[in-house]
Amino acid sequence: MEIIRGLSLFRLKRSVILGIKSLWMHKLRSLLTALGIVFGVCSVIAMLAIGEGASYEAQQQIKELGSQNIILSSVKPTNNTTAGEQERSLILEYGLNYKDMAQIQATVPGVRVVVPAREMKDFLWNNSQSVDGLVLGSVSWFPEMRNRDMMRGRFFTEIEMSNRSAVCVLTQSLARQLFPLDEPIGQTVRVQTSYFRVIGIIEDDPAVAASEAELEGSSESGEGMEMMIPITTLKDHFGDVLFKYRSGSFEAEKVELHEVTVRIDTPERVMPAALAIQHILERNHKEVDYKMTVPLDLLRRAERTKQIFNIVLGSIAAISLLVGGIGIMNIMLATVTERTREIGIRRALGAKKKDIVMQFLIETVMLSGAGGFLGVVLGLAIPILISHFAEMKTIIEFWAPTLAFTISVVIGVLFGIYPAFRAADMNPVEALRHE
Amino acid sequence: MPETQSAPSVDPSSAKVGDPVIELRGVEKHYQMGSVLVKALRGVDLKIFAGDYISILGPSGCGKSTMLNILGCLDQPSVGHYFLGGQDVSHLSDDDLSQVRGKKLGFIFQSYNLIQQLSVVENIEVPLYYQGVSEKESREIAVELATKVGLGKRLDHKPTELSGGQQQRVAIARALSNDPAVIFADEATGNLDSKSGGDILEIFDQLNADGKTLVMITHDEGMADRTPRVIRLKDGQIAFDTYSETK
To answer: Which residue from A22, A349, A354 is facing B102, i.e. has the nearest CB?
Structure first.
């Protein structure tokens, strides 16, 4: 047993050396033949890395919203029939209200926390400096719910909420705009006639940060310029009716809640809960003046998109590897014909059919394996270059190069079998006579 | 003519004792050429003994090549039996025939038939490789044989770097590497000038003197003067089988 194994290992080694010699005799031809596999493998790895990177970023953004959350927001209705009625009353009333919130909390199973939020667009002042920003009335557990980290200082507490304290937390970019030189914490920010003390800096909304990075420095748009204060304080200081100065005339809006974030206890209950909330809102609101965002749903959709992307990629890869395999088979058939005499000599000197099969099979596998290896090297290098120069995120999963290399070897075996058997099936007498 | 005994009926093997290395009994070989059945060999009986030095002569188309293919186990007879070292090899499987060729036979061809991508030593090692001889042992044998045929200093040369005579010497070393029972030489000097050809023939003489059994297939009448036993083929049959002890 030991002898047989030692023997076959020795034979394998010799066959590999022989294969290298034969391939080396036609360097250019071998290289060109392997190129099909090189590009196939390389494109699979590179495209997978870019695809993974892109979908990872998208999924990360969705996860920032919280996969167990359902986010409801008020939307100004665009319905024309009701616009006529609304014009008569001076105050436009729409959106989510405290009644919706209470019902959701009471009737939907699995609801753990509900975070109400109101927002108000206004100028935020630091002495004579102002920024067109957003005042966000929220609750003390907002950062935890939305996965937002505190950069410095702290968020307001429940006590400050019930005390209706005049404290505020600024987003990073707002702090940078309002207090370019000073330490913002401890300073005051004026909105209309109210003053708020800065107690902390929170990181920017990742979704906003991402869109801003693309536009590069166009942060003047006012997006991400958020000042957060307790929702109770907001109601106290500014009331339920918000005035907006728009195109030369004042416009009054009454919106009780701009945003409600509902957290569900387990991911499995998110989708049924979303359906229940949809029903409640449909019953309470005559028109669609709200929007529901389910991050989990978005996540699932993103995953599906990725799946489709992977299938498309897989098909392209399969086709390119198939073409590469056919190229290899073509060259191996030519090689077998070219080396008919060598096959005849080997058969005369005692080679069995299976020896010839092994010789050519090993040669084919080495050709495709070398192509696969080169492809893996290139395929790993390209995503690194892309991340470096194009600043795109790329992710190389361990299984991608492993799989691509394995496939290239399998292709060598599959497409090598026919030429190898053709070589072995030659009549030794005729092969020896071949010119 | 050098033939002292010209009658085909004389059994040349009567001079030898023991069992023959090779024995053909009523061997025929038929080929289907389109609708015509060609009989390349029509009833050949032959015994070859250890230490024989034989020339097989005949005009082209007489069945020489067919004879060599069958003797060399590259082809099998349509009719009759072929015993090699007492074993009937007429109906062996392809694998077993390969085994027999690799173990018991040596070949030397007109056009040397070396493998181009292998060096001198590696070419000599090919039969040993298929016999499963270990790397170290086969290298030792190959170096020894290369030195014996005068190529000790060209072990790592490729066939393209050698002259015809040198290539044929590599082929001889290769044929010897598995210590075969019989060596077949097919027009071994056909591609060589008379000087190199003469050198090769001297090596053959020496090998026979050392006890090797050699069978040369040729159309060169000069060979008949060289070997003690001469077989002449005509129309697929042995026309003359003469043996001269005086040579």
So the answer is: A349
